[in-house]
Amino acid sequence: MRKFTLLGGLLTFCGAAFSQYTTPDTGVTWGLQDLVTEAPATVTFENGEYVIANDLTVSLTDQLLIEEDAVVKIAADVEINVLGGFRVDAPDNILFTAVDNTQNFKGFRFEEGSVVYFKNATITYGGGLRVLTETFEMYDSEVSYQGSGSATSAITFSRGNPIVKDSRFIDNYQSAFGSGANQMVSATLIGNYLEGNGTANTNRPQINMGPGGTDSTKVIGNTVIGNRANTKVGGISVSSLLGLDNYCVIEDNIIRDNRYGISVAGANSFGRISGNIIENNDSENSPNVGGSGISIQTGGDSSYIYITANEIRNNLWGVTVIGGARVNLGSTDENYPNPGGNIFSNNGNGGETYALYNNTAFPIEAMNNCWIEGAEELTEADVEGVITHETDNSSLGLVNYAEFGCGSSLSTDKGLTAFEFEMYPNPSTGTFTLQTEKEASFEIVNHLGQVVQKGNLSAGANKVSTTLQSGVYYVVVNSGKAVANQKIVIR
Questions:
Q1: For the whole model, what pTM was predicted?
Q2: Which residues form the Secretion system C-terminal sorting domain (predicted)?
């Protein structure tokens, strides 16, 4: 598969003279069979399988291109190091695995500036993927049973905007995804399935991301299932412990059976936690050190987290807000709109229910939420019974939980219900119709809670045109007395 003709055998000495092989750095695109030919001491093909016996390096101007279904077995402690290009695009699946599953290979190391692409790849019994480059994409793949080696997580990111989509991560020794506390990585993690990662049972969540930077870490539509025997392992964390900018979107995930569900920590944290199902995250069963469905421990004037439309059930705590954190669980303030819509059920410990624990001195807007799922009618006393705030301790901030209710009473003033607010088509290419039975105003809110468009509605059908980028937004309709909302996808 080499694109250029090499000069005789001048370069083949690399494989013969040394135990490791480095491609010649001549702008050549290599295939696996080329490596067998040029580096027989490092790469062999026998009985339908490739075997990599020694360290392999893809040089800065070279590329390794694999567009075939294959089995590649890698010897113990061997590392694949890439400075140039590495592209795997198998028709069905290519398996990278250890020669002996009891002796993991060292893993992959992708140096800064390399360009990496995986599709339809399975990587098992290695030492993880150390991603030092800005350009990394993975689709429809699996990374499982990674031990200690090249990376501190199954995939460890260091910079840039890596993408991992529709892939599986099972029973890895540490986190499935990780990045450093001093490295801003705006990763996009979409539609992945994670289960049982963290078999070392250390204090690391399955998704363990550092600061997201201003481009945001996006954790969207993933399933994160814990192994309850791994009592120290949390679900999702996006944290900035050194004061770096930390923008995050944690949306539409299913998070179950971990030590805790979602954690955002550190100053300069801003973002949205919305549409998640967060259940039974109590594996350690110790309320002093974990068990929150959502835990926010941020600080500083630039920190602000929107918490919207989550279903939070059977954790030791529902939402805990700690230190100097600023959060918004529901507000009609035109500068900080949030439709609320969070649902709480049976979050508690020690015989007490804790839907929301405001362990800060700051007030919290928490309007339009269902504080006790299944209750047809709620009183203020009922809500007070599941919220800890100023009325329980004068040093704590006050929670404004007005317009509470469950079921159809959410997002309603009995005059503009969610059923009277219709929106179509959805998804939309940018033009859609809002229909309401009375005059109202509307706002379109992005994933960071920022209002990107607003206007007024007449009774009846109203055409709305936008020039927004593709993505998920919230359309918030305000009757003047209450707020209703729906999610819209712009394509």
A1: 0.83
A2: 423-490
